[in-house]
Specification:
By secondary structure, the protein is of the alpha+beta class. The chain has 2 helices and 5 strands; from the N terminus they run E-H-E-E-E-E-H. A 5-stranded mixed beta sheet has the order 4-3-2-1-5. The longest helix has 10 residues. It holds the Pfam family TnpB_IS66.
């Protein structure tokens, strides 16, 4: 079955998404609103007003996989910023799935320039 760590990119749809949408509705949203290809090797994450459940859309070579996760105790720390879509790192994806914020204030950030003088 699906191994989400194989996805080249993880995109998070910020704000609220109507989770009554199915595969076709979410794929259309990815194409029209975000200008992204739903058939790419990417995982697309969506969250409704109740932040205890999310949907994920992923294209496997022969069809779409629609995943649904509902937390029984707790809520996802979903960004409600005006940004339309965010690209997540593997670490941010893990934090999100563990119920943590994807923007950890005390986490070590990767260095951009490692040149030694």
């Amino acid at each position: 079955m699906l191994d989400v760590t194989r996805a080249a990119h993880v995109y998070l749809a910020c704000g609220y998404t109507d989770l009554r949408r199915g595969i076709d509705g979410l794929a259309a949203m990815v194409q029209q609103r975000f200008q992204l290809d739903p058939f790419s090797d990417s995982l697309f994450l969506f969250c409704g007003r109740r932040t205890d459940r999310i949907k994920a859309l992923y294209w496997e070579e022969d069809g779409f996989v629609l995943l649904y996760k509902r937390l029984e105790n707790g809520r996802f720390q979903w960004p409600r910023t005006p940004e339309d879509v965010r690209v997540l790192t593997e670490q941010q994806f893990r934090w999100l799935m563990e119920g943590l914020s994807i923007d950890q204030p005390k986490a070590l950030r990767p260095m951009k320039d490692l040149s030694i003088v």
